[in-house]
Amino acid sequence: MGALLSNLPAVIALLVLLAFMAYVAIRVNPGFLIKRVAGLVFVVMGVSFITFVLGFWGSGPNGIEAVIGQCGTRCTPNILKNLENVYGLRDPWYLQYGHYLERLVHGDLGLSYSNRNRTVWDILGQGVPVSLTLQAFAIPLTIIAGVPIGIYSAIRAGSRFDTTTNSVSLLFFAIPSYLLIVYYRFVMVFLAVRNLPHLPVSGWGDPIDIVAPAVILAAVGAAFFTRLSRTSMLEVLGQEYIRTARAKGLRERVVIFKHALRNAIIPLVTALGPTLAFAVTGAFFTELLFNIPGVANAAVASITNKDLPVIQGVVIMTAVAVALMNLAVDVIYGVLDPRIKVV
Amino acid sequence: MADKLLEVQNLRTQFFTRGGVVKAVEDVSFYLDESETLGVVGESGCGKSVTALSVMRLIDRPGKIVGGRILFRGEDVLEMDEEELYELRGGKIAMIFQDPTTSLNPVFTVGNQISEAIKVHLKLDDRAARNRTIEMMERVRIPDARRRYTQYPHEFSGGMRQRVMIAMALSCNPQLLVADEPTTALDVTIQAQVLDLMKALSEEFKTATMLITHDLGVVAGMAQRIVVMYAGRVIEEAPTRALFATPAHPYTQALLSAVPRSSVPRGTRLTAIPGQPPNLVNLPAGCSFAPRCPKVQPRCRVERPELETVGPNQRAACFYPY
Amino acid sequence: METTNASDNVSDSMLGVIAPQQSNAGDVSQQPSVSPGRAALRRFFRDKRAVVCLAIILFIVIGSFVFPPIYQHIGPVNPASIGAGKGIGPTDYHEPAFENLNYSDGPSTLLPLGPRSLVYPLGTDTNGRDLFARVMAGVNTSIIIALTVEIFDIGMGVLLGTLAGFFGGWLDTVLARFTDIMFAFPGLLLIILIAASLGPVFDSRFGSGVGRVLLIIFAIGLLVWPLMMRFVRGQTIQLKEQQYIEAARTVGGTNSTIIMRHIIPNLASIVIIAATLDILGTITTEAGISLLGVGIQPPATSLGLMISDTIASVYSNWTEPLWPAAMLIILVIAFAFIGDGIRDAFDPRTKD
Questions:
Q1: How far is B50 from chain A (nearest CA, A)?
Q2: pLDDT of C113 strictly over 90
Q3: Nearest to B15 by CA among B62, B60, B52, B55
Q4: Chains touching chain B, criterion 3+ CB pairs below 8 Å
Q5: Which residue in B99, B305, B297, B315 sits closest to B228, CA to CA?
Q6: Which residue among A288, B115, B202, C333 is least packed, with the fewest CB closer than 10 Å?
Q7: How large is the average pLDDT for residues B6-15?
Q8: What's the ipTM?
Q9: Rounded CA separation A142/A226 (Å)
């Protein structure tokens, strides 16, 4: 995977974010923004506190188990003491947490416990573009596949297409992604053993590596969006204003694509918010089972290594993404549904 | 007398549900003259709304029109193809629904929703359609129409929304206006205003009106003739005056005695009709009203009465009228 | 002007239920009215797909408790460890995770891999363990975890949801902020973190078998109830605005009687729908984290653990992974179809 390809999604994401922030700053009233920022601060505090307590508990007496890996057998009391000083492990837990928050205000996520001389930003900086690249393929695929099928299914409610879609989407919605991956492996191994053409079962680096994980992620996501858009569209089609539109003599095409669709996408936006917010950590099993060096892999590795700062970083990043996406959903809501005022 | 504007003959509309076939409209016939106002009266579930939707061919699955003819100016609506229906709906027959809150699309401006019908039927461009819309909004007495053009339905009050619906319905000069309980969802004080407006406008536009309601008080001042429906059938049809003076069917009589009126001596109790309307899946044999009828005779339970002339222009489906 | 007898009619029309009526032409004064719950049940049982799935689930749930003790009498004997040549003793089956079902035949008597036989209905795995016994044990683990989580989920969700929705105030605010935090967590990561950091504590306190099951219940339970609470809270707020609550209050109903008699019974639909989805989520999450190696630990077993074993052995025996995965898929699909059926049954729009 070229440097451009792995950086492009991040750049696009950043531009979208900036544009969105500018829009919010212009359109939304400052009181609302202040409330939202306060909410964000609160959520980040809560999330980081829970993580800190769990991580502190898990990483043994004062995190020493985690840092001990840095010197291994060559550890001497002196080196250990040095490490403890660097990470402030001697402090009581509330001081450690306080220092952590203090650094957080400056945008500093701290140093990794288990990797010498690496900051958390550094580790996330490697994982996030990979995860985002994967999702940059998977999420559009999810929407493109899921929403039209669901809408069409609702229009043809009760038809064979609808009942089939309904069952198939229920299956993909219910079956966990890791089972799909396990079966995907079986098929690929079966093909490989017989020297038939097949896709790779794991790895990252070749453009072809992205196909299977993205498709599997999209299949699961699309199933959800199919069901959601079908329900939403069915609900809208049963509304009286649709009957009014038909009674006006509008063509069915106009009734569906203007009057119904515009209302049906409103709940989809709500669902898209969390989907995008969890884009970085959402592809958990996919990243792990395909051995993709994204955030999920880094997170699991850091849990295994009791690397508290990295776990904290991942969790805080997600919380911020969730908060931003909720804000985005609210703003888009206000645009789509004039009944809702973005205050 | 002019030709019949609308003639419904033996209309039968049924809903095919899991619980069985609901015979919502059975063998319903009536007519409307040009510029006439016809009241269609009955309690909820008697098939009056389904009749109205059938006239517009707006019956959705699992409903289906299974028989009869609906002649609009001699053309059978049931034989029309899609293109003809698009012209009919909104253009020749317009409809107003019960609840103006849910009948307007919440995400489009009022102006947008009125003008889109105008663009389709009168083939006007955006600018002309906009002018026509504002003109219509003024004619239904929406104050400050130019500003309200760009507002959304939720920014209107209930009465104003129904005015929007009326403006939308009349904007393309339809020959027939089907109003399905147009005032039921409104406050009592607003009801009279909206009814007056409808009456004035339909006279002005020379539009015939089919006014569907459960409220005899509403049709009394509006309609020239009244059709009373019960359990999917027409059970009485008479000029308004005759119906109020000499109701033939016991059901009509019961309906009238349940209306508070100043002409009745003080102290007279309003009478309620006991029991509930029958289940439209399994209709009892004989007269549908027999189980609730105070004058029921053994014959009523086995044989169904047909509509028969019982007075000048008055017909009723009862073996023992008056 | 409604012409029908208003007082007779009001309960039906208010709940929006069309009572399926019988065709008794003579008796019209009282049509039999059906409570919404009963009507929903009736609609559910008309959905053949859901009923079949319910039967399958009941069979699996009951079977996962009943079959192992039977299997010990008719199944293969334990040639090595506890009393050679005997069936696996009843006490073994009473271990919560049925660890001893996972016995190894030992290298000497080992049927090397796979081949199904009368002795081993599904064959054995790479370690010579009886797959049939292990699948039963795995399903049992999943069921125990799912049911316990559900009890916790419904208990916490209904209790706090009704309190927050009904009384509002500081409790509502505190819970709302707490759910904000919980919803901002990447769920799986939190579960893994809990499992990793509290795992040793649970292991040493309860032993690694029971401890791990409890740990997973704790971790998943902690994650699922805020959503249930939010559903219940929303529904409670809606119910609270209903006129019959006001009516109950005017005739002297206290808060507790209103909650117990008027709110909680009407939460049934939303709780059942959410719980079905949560069961599904719990089963797949448990299998998922066991698959990642932070859930159930050997020698106990779980469907997820078995699937993870098979990822390695697929090259040598492709039938082995079939069974745990198939079992998981059956469970998940059956619950999904049941959930679908329940949702349709409670949906007032899908009338008869």
A1: 13
A2: no
A3: B62
A4: A, C
A5: B315
A6: C333
A7: 90
A8: 0.87
A9: 9
- pLDDT tens digits for range A76-129: 777 777 777 777 777 777 888 888 888 888 878 888 877 777 888 888 888 888
CA distance B119 to chain A (A): 10
Query: Is A55 close to C193, i.e. CB distance below 8 A?
Result: yes
Give the Å distances, CA to CA, from B15 to A48, A156, A162, A322, C41: 58, 18, 21, 47, 23
pTM: 0.80
Short-list B96, B105, B119, CA closest to B170 = B96
Given a cut of 90, whether residue A149 has pLDDT beyond it is yes
Q: Which two tokens stand for residue B93?
A: 């027959």
Partner residue facing A54 (CB), from C193, C291, C335: C193
pLDDT tens for residues B98-119?
A: 888 889 998 899 999 999 989 9
pLDDT tens per residue, range C40-67: 788 888 888 888 989 998 998 888 888 7
If you search the block for the tokens 């339909």, which residue do you land on?
B202
Q: State the best of A241, A251, A263 to mutate against chain B, taking most chain B CBs within 10 Å.
A: A241
What would the pLDDT profile of C319-334 be if each residue is shown by its tens digit? 666 778 888 888 888 8
Residue the block writes with tokens 């008699």? C261
Question: What gap in Å lies between CA A103 and CA A197, rounded to an integer?
Answer: 52
Residue B226: pLDDT band with limits 50, 70, 90: very high
Put simply, the answer to whether B89 touches A337 (Cβ < 8 Å) is: no
Inter-chain Cβ pairs, chain A and chain B, closer than 8 A? 77
pLDDT tens for each residue of A239-290: 889 999 999 989 989 999 999 998 898 888 888 888 887 877 778 888 888 8
Q: Are A319 and A44 in contact (CB under 8 A)?
A: yes
As a whole number of angstroms, the distance between CA A47 and CA A313 comes to 11
Rg (CA), chain C: 25
Contact A222, A151 (CB under 8 A): no
For B237, the 3-state DSSP assignment is strand
Per-domain residue ranges of chain C: 131-346
How far, in Å, CA of C300 to CA of C137, rounded?
Answer: 8
pLDDT per residue as tens digits for the range B53-105: 999 898 887 888 998 889 988 888 888 888 888 988 988 899 998 888 889 99
* C235 pLDDT more than 70: yes
CATH number of A126-304: 1.10.3720.10
User: Any idea what the Cα angle at residue B94 is, between residues B91 and B97, rounded to 5°?
Assistant: 150
Chain C residue with CA closest to A46: the answer is: C181
Q: At residue C324, what are phi and psi to the nearest 5 degrees? A: -60, -40
pLDDT digits (tens, 9 = 90+) for B114-169: 999 899 898 888 999 999 999 999 988 888 889 999 999 989 988 889 889 999 99
Distances (CA, A) of A88 to A44, A55, A63, A111, C284: 22, 15, 10, 11, 40
Chain B residues in contact with C46 (beta carbon < 8 A): 18
B111, B150 contact by CB (below 8 A) = yes
- Residue given tokens 């009709």 in the structure block: B273
User: How many Cβ atoms sit within 10 Å of the Cβ of residue B98?
Assistant: 20
**Averaged pLDDT, C213-230:** 89
Q: What's the distance, CA A294 to chain centroid?
A: 12
CB contact under 8 A, C6 and B216: no
Superfamily for domain range C131-346: MetI-like (1.10.3720.10)
Residue in chain C nearest B292 by alpha carbon? C28
Instruction: Tell me, rounded to whole angstroms, the distance of Cα B72 from its chain centroid.
Output: 16
Chain B residues 103-132 with CB within 8 Å of chain C:
none
- Sketch the domain layout of chain A as residue ranges: 16-120, 126-304
- Dist. CA C279–CA C154, nearest whole Å: 11
Q: Averaged over B261-284, what is the pLDDT?
A: 72
φ and ψ of C130, to 5 deg = -65, 115
Strands (E), C230-333: none
